[in-house]
């Protein structure tokens, strides 16, 4: 039995329960799910793996991470600084060099943690600023290459310290876009740069010239946040960038009165904007049912993991999905399964996949775990017994194989 079939090989994953269904055999060919048949009926003359009746889910998609900033695998770093966005930025800038951030070792380590927990694709913001330049982009690319393609990594060049208030950052974002990052980012145009028009002018100019996407962190709350959502939606439509803009966090949407939420949900949908959340404890829930029913793409992410912003996080997106379910008071089995889908199938667009599921034609990213059904897996987050990425075993018994 071969654990890591080559790009031209065929593998049959036998006796698994996709989404908790009856047992099936999955025929994988060239890294793609070629067929799904009743268990015991696939031709297993080729290489095969016995799934032992385990629950099968699609690989998880981390729609919002910061893999360049973790100190995972290094000695513990005490939390410090002022607990505000501006305070966290200042603290990080003052201390990141002390801890060697960014560095290849920690970035590889945190990507391996993603794999260990079943995440097979990640959309990571990478700091681009006057102090670090484009070094973080280079480090993350090198880390992804070191794992030999086991995890798909898309990059967002992210101006954590602001754009307009730091002359030269727009040039760096332009360079990153020219160097092939998928997206460029922004952050709180009103409260960080105090000039939302100038920040959005600069970002949309770069994105339209280079054909990149945009992902804007929006921490500002209440009507200040709502105002910026409106500006971003207007710019998106004016630039013809529907389907290419994401708002991350967007705490304001959960803080506003119901009638105002409805207005913004309709506006975001009309502009074709996606939304990424980390389901933060202590923040009001998003109007998720309205977002879901309207068709706004919603992705879950881990945000930073053991970095100078927060000591929390272990890279397990299933735990983030659990937080999402608790925050939004999901209870029924159908609702709990939807939370897991937000962490997997529903996030396909964040990593540019037309489909990401246990279906023929989809990339063979598969997670097996010992759970009765999907709600049970969400509640317990059991060990990932087997993780396949592109038809290749990348994690076995909770241990990465790359």
Automatic annotation (TrEMBL):
Transmembrane segments: none annotated. Residues 109-394 form the Amidohydrolase domain. Pfam families: Amidohydro_3 (PF07969). NCBIfam families: PRK05985.1. This is Amidohydrolase. It comes from Lipingzhangella rawalii.
